[in-house]
Design a protein that fits this description.
The protein is an all-beta fold. The chain is built from no helices and 15 strands. It has 2 domains: 45 residues, no CATH class; 185 residues, Sandwich (Immunoglobulin-like). The chain is elongated.
């Protein structure tokens, strides 16, 4: 076990003197027995550095109205700084919270509430921190809610989330209609739905409270999700996945 010892002489030359006491600090066996056991040597402490940034961050539905942010933990991190904002530039409606490592679910997951107002969107980024500071923030993804008409939940009501990894868009949608048994179709678009973005994936007859997810090779800066109840039309929203 390492222990710091006071220097008896440190006058700038290449010699230092240490005082060791039998049975005291510096005696390896800790017993006053006439023998000082001192297996050790000088050591220079290294300055602690901030941890590397977390990686493989994703956002996914993990319960009704609850999403989970999961990531590959960073070695040496004691806390994680989770930042949220109402826009992708992180300069509007910002908020931040420090999450201690012991508070993480499964050692790598942070639960967050889904947006509840029509067209509310949340974007997230994450940094790993310790006593020396925080890493560069990595973008996690975003979520958006639709409540139509007029913030009601009897008709069109869903939350969508998106993120992108290695050129693949990952998107999901949770049907939050408050009418039991009112299943809906969820559609996924490359680009902005209703403004030229093509539909690339769909989920049919998603029950209230259930979620569906899809992924595809993507290069458009926007990803959209919409909801419909045939034969009625679609209501959608767009997010930036990275």
């Amino acid at each position: 076990m390492w222990a710091p010892l006071s220097l008896g002489d440190n006058d700038g030359d290449n010699v230092i003197f240490l005082t060791l006491i039998d049975g005291g600090l510096g005696d390896g066996d800790g017993i006053a027995n006439g023998v000082i056991t001192d297996p050790g040597g000088p050591a220079i402490p290294t300055a602690q550095e901030p941890p590397s940034a977390p990686s493989l961050a994703s956002i996914w539905p993990c319960g009704m109205g609850v999403a989970c942010i999961s990531f590959l933990p960073s070695e040496g991190a004691s806390t994680y700084l989770l930042e949220s904002a109402l826009n992708r530039e992180f300069n509007f409606g910002t908020n931040s919270v420090q999450v201690p490592v012991p508070s993480l679910l499964w050692g790598n997951t942070i639960p967050v509430g889904m947006p509840t107002g029509d067209m509310w969107s949340f974007y997230y980024r994450l940094s790993a921190c310790n006593g020396a500071g925080c890493s560069q923030a990595v973008f996690v993804g975003g979520m958006v809610a639709r409540r139509f008409p007029g913030d009601t939940t009897e008709h069109w009501a869903f939350v969508a989330g998106v993120y992108r990894f290695l050129g693949v868009a990952f998107a999901w949608a949770q049907n939050q209609v408050s009418v039991p048994g009112k299943a809906s179709n969820m559609h996924f678009y490359e680009g902005v739905q209703g403004f030229g973005g093509p539909r690339v994936q769909s989920c049919t007859l998603v029950q209230p409270g259930e979620s569906c997810s899809r992924s595809w090779a993507s290069s458009d800066p926007w990803t959209s999700v919409s909801q419909d109840f045939p034969p009625t039309g679609e209501v959608g929203a767009a997010l930036r996945p990275d």
